[in-house]
Specification:
7-stranded mixed sheet, binds S-adenosylmethionine, 2 domains, Rossmann fold, globular, 12 strands, Spermidine Synthase, Chain: A, domain 2
């Protein structure tokens, strides 16, 4: 019998993955959590029927949401991830020797528990002694922390349910205050093809708060359209002025020092969104 998991990526487009096993399925206080075994992408974390991450392509997203801001900063010591309960962003942050502490603030403890059990390749950093896991609402947490972090990555679900506020101007203001004087933040900002209005609004909001705002992209096969956007707000360092020849090689599968610069070069239609 053929079993297929299908995500409705837009009202008019679906992605289907042939599924060999359901490893875990539970409804938490916040969402329906599933971990399934797929033929094409291996184990996959699905929240409310939306693909979050999987063993095969997770490296793209997790490397791009972390190494780009971390290499823009001159000496990052304390990093924060909001959302990201699978632990992939924390795993990547810990590859930077300058990092003394990487804090994860995830609203749903069950996502962290399930990822630890079923996705150890992704969640492995969460048990590192430099990592701290806090189960709390990132919006509440950020308002209670001022002038504390060098780099903040907002590794959120789509702007639905508890993640709506993670795409709001007030949240970006609180992030600005939670960062040190030369701090940088990056948020995943959805698809340049399918989320044009969101990208326009978010970019405008971030530009009204941070002196430097840059958008960059990565290619993620299981996200709608493949091409995915990230938006950076920086208080002092401009990624376009970073000398990429000074970026050291890390143990990565997507990110390279050369790609760092190239990732800010946008297709025309994406440039037009943030004019
Ligand atoms: N890479 C993924 C994507 O773009 O689809 C995101 C993965 S990560 C699993 C997203 C996490 O954000 C979820 O586990 C969700 O529980 C968490 N989240 C949503 N709203 C949040 C909030 N207000 N505070 C903290 N975490 C939140």
């Amino acid at each position: 019998m053929d079993l297929w998991f299908t995500e409705l990526q837009t009202p008019g487009m679906k992605i289907s993955c042939k599924t060999t096993k359901v490893l875990y399925n539970e409804k938490s206080e916040f969402q329906d959590i599933g971990i399934i075994e797929t033929e094409q992408f291996g184990r996959m974390l699905v929240l409310d029927d939306i693909i979050q991450t999987n063993i095969e392509d997770e490296f793209v997203y997790h490397e791009m949401i972390t190494h780009v801001p971390l290499f823009t900063h001159k000496n990052p010591k304390k990093a924060l991830v909001i959302g990201g309960g699978d632990g992939g962003a924390i795993r990547e942050i810990l590859k930077h020797p300058s990092i003394e502490k990487a804090v994860l603030v995830e609203i749903d403890g069950k996502v962290v528990e399930a990822s630890k059990k079923y996705l150890p390749e992704i969640s492995c950093g969460l048990s590192n002694e430099r990592a701290e896991v806090i189960i709390d609402d990132g919006i509440k947490y950020i308002k209670e922390h001022k002038n504390e972090f060098d780099v903040i990555s907002v590794d959120s679900t789509d702007p639905i349910g508890p993640a709506v506020g993670l795409f709001a101007a007030d949240f970006y203001k609180a992030i600005y205050e939670a960062l040190k004087d030369d701090g940088i933040f990056v948020a995943q900002t959805e698809s340049p093809f399918f989320n044009k209005d969101l990208i326009k609004r978010v970019n405008k909001d971030i530009r009204s708060i941070f002196p430097i705002t840059r958008m960059y992209t990565g290619y993620i096969p299981t996200y709608p359209g493949g091409l995915w956007s990230f938006t950076m707000g920086s208080k002092k360092y401009d990624p376009l002025e970073v000398d990429e020849t000074q970026i050291p090689e890390l143990d990565t599968k997507y990110f390279t020092p050369q790609l760092y610069k190239a990732t800010f070069v946008l297709p025309k239609f994406a440039q037009d969104l943030i004019k």
